[in-house]
Amino acid sequence: MSYNLLELNRNGLRKLTEGLEDAESWQAKRREIERSWLELIGGVPNGVPVSYEVLSETKEADHTRVHLVYDTVYGDKVTAYLLLPDESVEGAGSDGRRPAVLALHPTDESGKDNVATRNGRVNRMYGLELVSRGYTVLAPDALTAGERIYPGLLSFRSKPFYELHPEWSTVGKNTVDHKMGVDLLCTLDRVDPDRIGAIGHSFGGYNAYFLAGLDSRIRAYVSSCGFSPFYGDHRPTHWGIRDWYTHIPRVSDYLREYEVPFEFHEIAALAAPIPAFHYYGQSDPIFPHWQAVGACMAELSELYRFLGTEDRFQAVMTAGGHDFPSEIRGLAYAFLDRWLMESPVTNQVK
What we know:
With 350 residues, the protein is of the alpha/beta class. The chain has helices at residues 5-11, 23-40, 113-116, 126-132, 159-164, 170-186, 203-214, 249-255, 264-269, 290-306, 326-342; strands at 3-4, 52-59, 63-71, 77-85, 98-104, 136-140, 191-201, 218-224, 259-260, 276-281, 313-318.
């Protein structure tokens, strides 16, 4: 899976379907991508038994916000909001159970508050909007944000994590924490475990598809401005070691040789054929290489067509910036409604 950056930028992406004959051959390729990915991020350990503590409950206009903390691996805990729609809100099935969504926050100090409360930024309150549509929503704090900022440090400073886990990665850490969030949702009587999705913007956007690729219980996901390939990137080093937030330390070893260990369309492909919605903008100053993003989206679309599930993949591009505007959220919510409310996906080719 390793690529020389010069050749990658000169020759373009390697086709996901290259050399494939059928869905079975894709599964063999997928297993190799997953093996390499897990090795690079330091693995995703098995979870622990579900255990959580309710800290408080707040009644809002159409839902109850439960402030809780749940257990994760290595004795750590995740602070989160669980948003429970009132019974009067449409969306419950005949058995009273509802679809659920993990609302993963962007790079913002406030963490979960940014997406699950009215104190959130404009165009970021997707957790709050989804509970109003009838979804049970879990909005966890990622490590280094919200209530999980290391004492004495600014948000998104990951140095203490690597002092404890020098062979791991924050990508692996966030993935297992979010998988534990799925475990929690699956224990709730009001949640249909076969109708769980994920949504996120920017940092939350790539955490959404990272999770979907490694947890088949995610039946649909939305990633807004969260896709940034090495191909065409003017600063690929942001995925490696940095002095504030480090994603995957081992990437830096490759970049020193002007190589990269994978390309991100391969990682997004781990989720196929799970329904996937991606949004990106041509004026995004953080991930400005929209032509390269578009090429990756075309490759993912071709993979979904190859698997006979082309209706499950949607990529939208506008001339916009690094944002999740209302018209795009509307499309994203309609996408989630289709696959989690109206016609849940039951055949997972994993």
